[in-house]
Structures are given as C-alpha cells and as structure tokens.
Specification:
It is a single chain. With about 700 residues, this protein is of the alpha+beta class. Strands 4, 5, 6, 7, 8, 9, 10 and 11 form an eight-stranded mixed β-sheet that branches. It has a seven-stranded mixed beta barrel with strand order 12-16-17-20-21-24-25. The chain has a four-stranded mixed β-sheet with strand order 15-14-19-18. Helix 13 crosses helix 20 (about 645-670), helix 17 runs antiparallel to helix 18 and helix 18 crosses helix 20.
Length: about 700
C-alpha cells in the first residue's frame, strides 16, 4: 500500500505519522493534521481531497448537551478563571528576609513559606553566606586561584502535614537561586527569568563573580535512613569525604552526613537560562497532575531522558495559570502539541511565557447558563486547560504523558487533596446523570411503567431492532461521539449494533452458554424506543434526557447508597426529602427480593419487561443479566442487603460476570471498525438465528 503515497501525501507524512491499512476499496485515508480525507479510487492510483469538517448544516444536528458545553467554552473565552477558581481555598506565598534580631549567623537569610489563610510559616530554610576573605590552610591550589564564597544551609524544615509535595525541594531551590544571583550571575535583575537575549554588560559594568561552596549536614534518624541523603542527592548535592557523625542521647539516635553543592560563577562565553524564582509570584499552590494510572510523566525539553514524574506548582499568571516544577522549570506547550519541561539551558523557544500559560475554562453542571457570578458546583465538575495555540492539555491514557490536542480533554480539580485529574468523564455524561437524578423519582418510575409496559408501540423482530440501533453510537458520552458526522465520509464511533455483535462474539469465544451470547446481542435493544416513539421519547432524548441509554442504575423507593454514581447530584432528587424513601427498605418489605422493587427506568429495564411479556424461553439467569447488570451498587458494592434475598444471591455471579464481559468488550471496541449490514447478516444467519429460534426469540415481538 506504500504505492498510494504520492508527493502530496509524502509531504504530510513528514509532519504526522500515517498508518496505511489494507481495507475494502474504495479506501479512505484520514489525515488528522489537515482534517482532510484522501479518497483512493478503485485502481489505487488517484486521490481526491475532501474536507472532513462537518458543514454548518451538519453541525446544526449536534446534540443539545454537546452544543451547551461547547457553547459555554466559547462564552467563557473572555472570562478569566484563575487559580482560586480552579482550586478555591488558600494559596501559598514565599517571603525572603535578611538578618534581623533573630539571626544567629553572619550573613544569615531566611526564606519562609506561608499560607494565605493562616499565621505562621509552614516551612522555612535558613542559610548564611559570605565571601571568603582569607583562604584557609586546607584550601587547594585551585581554590586559592579563584574567588570563593562560602554558604551553609542551617535549617530546612517543613511541617509534617505539608510533607510529600517537595516543598523542601522548593525552598532549597529558591535558596540556591538566590545564592547564584548574589554571587554567580552578573545579571542583577532577579525577576527577568526568561530574558536571555539581552547583550552582556561591558567589562567595566560587570560585578565581581564568585564560585560558591554551599555546605549542609543531613541529619536523619533510623526511621528516615537514607531518605534525606537521597533527597539532597536529587537536588545536586554530594557527600563530602568527612567522617559521618553518629549521635545518641539514649532515647534518640541519628547521624549527621556532611554534604555540599558547588555553584559555579557564570562565564561570558556561555550564559544559561536562569531558574524562575517564585519569590515575585503573588500566589501559587502545590498540585498533583494525575491520570488513570497515577502521576503523569513529562519529558524534559532536551529529550535525552525518558518521561519523568515531577512535583508540580500552579502559579497565577496574568492571562491564566502556569505549571512549574518545584525546582522552577516551566511546563510548556508547543504548536505541534508536544508538552515538555523547559530546562535551564534550552533557549530554542521564542515565546516561553506564552507557551507556558494555560487558560482554565469551567464547564458548568447547571442546565441554564446566565450571567450570574461563577459558582463551582463540586470538586467533580469539569475543566479544560487551553494553551495559547488553541489546543487543550490532556493526559494520554496509553503513554501516561502530557500532550495537547485539538479535541478538548477534561480535568477535575480537587481542592481537598490539591490535585488535577485528567478524566474520561465528559460534559454530556454529567449532563445525562444530572437529569437522571433530577427526573428519576419513584413516581416517575411508576408513570413510565404505566406508559410503556402495555407494549403498544408496534411489532418487530429482534433482528429488525438490531438494524435500528445501527444509527446509535456505542459511546454516546465520548466527546468525539457527540459531534454529528452523519453524511460525511468518516465514522468517528462504532455503532451500538457493532458493540452488541462484538460482545456476543466475545461471549462465544469464551465458551459461555448460547443464551448468554443471545443476551449479549439483545441487551441494548431498549434504545429502539426512540425509533418506535419518535414524537415523545425521541424528542425528549434529543433535547432533555435520554432514558434509553444504558447507564448505572439504582433502586428507587428506598435510601440511596452513598456509592451511587454521581452521588453529588442527589440533592436534585425530590425523593431524598420524602421520609417514605429514607430507610434501607423504604416502601418495600424486608428481603422481598429485587424482582419486587422498582429500578431506574432505562433501556435495559424496558428490555427485561419486554422479554418477559413476550414469553421467551430464556432462562431466569438471562433475564437477571439484562435487568441487573447496571445495578453495580448491588453486584459490585453489595448494597441493598435489606431488600435482597437468597434468589438474588444465586443470580449475582451471573450478573457480575456479564457486566465484566460488557466492560471488557467496550474497552476493546473503542477503536474498532463498524460492522457492515452484510457482516451482521452473515453472523446472524450462520450462528445467532439458530440460538434465537431455540429460545423462541426469532418471531415478531410486541414493543
């Protein structure tokens, strides 16, 4: 297939990786870099370019939830959300002091770290320095020929509740930065961290520069043996060849390990980029950047090292926020989408300050947006972090590294543990669950059963219904599934029919009973109600709430478990204020069994009642799978013990295993190719039609 790459495609290949797959002709090659499709004709020799960006008319078909949050991003363009909006509460600031009545050493200085909402320093470093006027007897010949300044770290202390964020490393780096500025660098402007293109001062203007020998004693007890030494080694110190002191006072024993770091005076031949000091920053916070697999890695700009995990700070900037390591190196986003750490010697970035700035934009959970002041509804609400290039910061779930993409990626800010987590959650998903909590009461469930369980929508076979769900996306809440691309050449998401067939095939490959394979094929058919009832259910699904989508369920009519999905929206549900539904059993008899309770009204709940109404020959385990696989509070978290019975316990392993199979298939199907009508018909005719006939599921059903 390399023959189809002509000069135009090769030019694109030089900028982006292109994967050529052997597929059925005519072939479609999609270049994400240019949002362009290259359509190769039947003989594979000629290509035509097509714009794959949906036309304005097609974009108008986008769902309401997509429009609302995307419109909110555009509306928030002019707003300035800062550090306190993202992580409300306290901030930190640094304060530098020299001498004073508390000083006990010559040339003593302090750097203190304060919280904005409390008195007293939470961390401090005390150090002193002076120029060595007379060389000591132990000085080497090289030292005698140099200008030497001596410095010593006397105290480095972080209060116990603030440890684990490398605040000690921050204070140490700030002290080293100040010593370099004082003795080693000719540039007296400490705040001009990125101004490296200025001409050097003339010889008569240059101040006397010194090398600095900065010493310290690492004091550690047996509980921290080796940890403090390793901490200072990471900061560039080394152990000096002196005897280690061991001290004991009967109840407590520790050792003192002499260490040193040498700071070299800058030369006129080479000038390094200075470390950025936080002393001038009005406010900042330590933060953890996490993804699905924990801490996120970033590659330094030199590219010589593999991805590394850093301790981060968020700094308030004029136009947004900036991320830096505790050692003062900024996170920057390049126009190509690469995200890296700017090291001290890299001068290849023209607009570092702009490239280091990200604008946080909030996606509200509220249904109606007005001009009222910004209110953050919960720590689970969503943010996007937009770079100056118009791209969005994301954490790749596979490489576990930061990058920037054109498609928004969403973050959740948690002020209690000071973290920013890149989440697979999306605004459409939160909007769906918010409406679910608001609408799905005990009364709503009863009314929907009265309306739909007379099965008067029409007649159709299950295989016909499988054809209807071909138009529904398998992942309705993914950002790339919310953009309507109907009519275009590209299919951005596999269909629900494809997911159903692949799950059935997965059950078949695992050797599960044939009725499990059939349930896997039919369990999502509740969404067909949107086709059968377009004027009511269909319109509601497009505008307000789509109850047919398979999402986590719960029992209505009793107390709601704390582990319920999106429990932060529970206050929207009027049942929580009704005393009848406030106990573990609620309106039900103790241990009445799940067969006798009401679940959230959903597509699978409707499908369960449809299979029962049409009197199929499926075993009871199959019906339990259809109804309860979404009831994770029961089969995962073992809730509802007050209303379940022994029969439910017998069904639980089947339900749990079915949910495991479904989750596994959904993960594997993310990047799969949509099955054609012919492929689905082939699978049905060759295998599943016989199973459907065996369990009396091959006839017309009342819907």
């Amino acid at each position: 297939n390399h023959e189809i790459l002509d000069s135009g495609a090769k030019a694109a290949a030089g900028r982006k990786r292109i994967l050529i797959l052997e597929v059925a002709r005519p072939t479609l090659l999609y270049l994400l870099a240019f949002e362009t499709a290259l359509v190769i004709d039947e003989n594979g020799s000629q290509m035509t370019s097509h714009n794959c960006v949906p036309s304005p008319a097609k974009k108008a078909k986008t769902t309401t939830s997509w429009r609302s949050w995307k419109g909110e991003l555009e509306a928030n363009n002019g707003k300035r959300f800062g550090l306190q909006d993202l992580l409300p509460g306290f901030t930190l600031r640094l304060e530098h002091r020299q001498g004073g009545t508390l000083a006990t050493h010559r040339g003593e200085e302090r750097i203190l770290l304060y919280r904005s909402d409390k008195k007293g320093a939470i961390a401090k470093i005390i150090y002193s320095s002076e120029i060595q006027e007379q060389p000591s007897l132990q000085s080497s010949v090289a030292e005698l020929q140099k200008n030497i300044a001596q410095a010593k770290i006397h105290v480095l202390d972080v209060k116990s509740q603030y440890r684990g964020r490398d605040l000690g490393g921050l204070l140490f780096s700030e002290a080293i930065t100040h010593l370099k500025s004082k003795y080693c660098n000719n540039d007296d402007n400490e705040d001009d961290d990125f101004n490296t293109n200025e001409p050097l001062k003339s010889d008569y203007e240059q101040k006397q520069l010194y090398d600095v020998n900065c010493s310290l004693e690492a004091e550690e007890d047996v509980t921290r043996h080796g940890k403090l030494i390793a901490f200072y080694l990471r900061l560039g110190c080394h152990v000096v060849s002196k005897r280690v002191q061991y001290i004991s006072d009967n109840d407590f024993a520790y050792r003192k390990v002499p260490m040193q770091v040498t700071l070299k005076a800058a030369t006129t031949a080479a000038r390094k980029r200075k470390r950025s000091s936080l002393m001038s920053k009005a406010s900042f916070l330590p933060v953890q950047l996490v993804g699905d697999a924990g801490k996120i890695t970033v590659t330094p700009s030199g590219g010589s090292e593999a991805g590394m995990k850093f301790d981060w700070l968020i700094n308030q900037a004029d136009d947004g926020i900036q991320f830096s390591t505790t050692h003062g190196h900024f996170l920057i986003a390049s126009p190509s989408g690469n995200v890296t750490i700017l090291d001290q010697v890299n001068d290849s970035y023209s607009d570092v300050d702009g490239w280091a700035t990200f604008v946080p934009l909030h996606i509200s959970d509220e249904i109606d947006h007005d001009d009222s002041p910004f209110q953050q509804s919960s720590s689970r609400s969503l943010w996007v972090l937009r770079s100056c290039h118009g791209t969005f910061l994301t954490a790749d779930s596979v490489s576990k590294c930061l990058s920037c993409t054109k498609l928004p990626s969403f973050w959740q800010a948690n002020g209690s543990n000071l973290s920013l987590a890149c989440t697979s959650d999306t605004p459409p998903r939160r909007h769906h669950y918010l409406q679910c909590w608001k609408l799905q009461t005990h009364e709503y469930g009863q009314s929907m059963r009265s309306r739909f369980l007379n099965f008067s929508l029409g007649n159709a076979t299950l295989f016909e219904a499988l054809g209807w769900i071909h138009t529904f996306p398998a992942y309705p809440f993914h950002a790339w599934s919310c953009e309507d691309t109907s009519g275009s050449s590209m299919v951005s998401s596999p269909s629900l029919r494809t997911l159903s067939f692949l799950m059935a095939e997965a059950a078949r490959d695992e050797g599960l009973p044939d009725w499990v394979q059939l349930v896997a094929l039919f369990h999502e058919l509740g969404e067909t109600v949107k086709k059968l009832d377009p004027n009511n259910t269909g319109k509601m699904a497009d505008s307000i709430y789509d109850w047919t989508i398979s999402t986590r369920s719960r029992v209505v009519g009793c107390a709601i478990p704390n582990c319920a999905t999106f429990s932060e929206f529970r206050h929207l549900n009027t049942d929580v204020l009704d005393a009848r539904y406030s106990t573990d059993t609620g309106v039900y008899e103790a241990n009445c069994g799940l067969d006798n309770v009401l679940l959230l009204w959903s597509g699978p709940e409707y499908m369960y009642h449809l299979l029962r109404h049409n009197q199929t020959a499926l075993p009871l385990e199959a019906l339990a799978m259809v109804r309860y696989y979404l009831l994770g509070d029961w089969h995962e978290h073992h809730e509802y013990t007050s209303i379940t019975n022994e029969y439910d316990e017998d069904m639980l392993p089947w339900v749990s295993d079915f949910d495991r199979l479904r989750r596994k298939t959904r993960l594997e199907c993310l990047d799969c190719v949509d099955l054609s009508d012919e492929q689905c018909a082939y699978l049905w005719d060759r295998h599943y039609s016989r199973i459907a006939a065996k369990y009396d599921c091959d006839r017309l059903f009342a819907w």
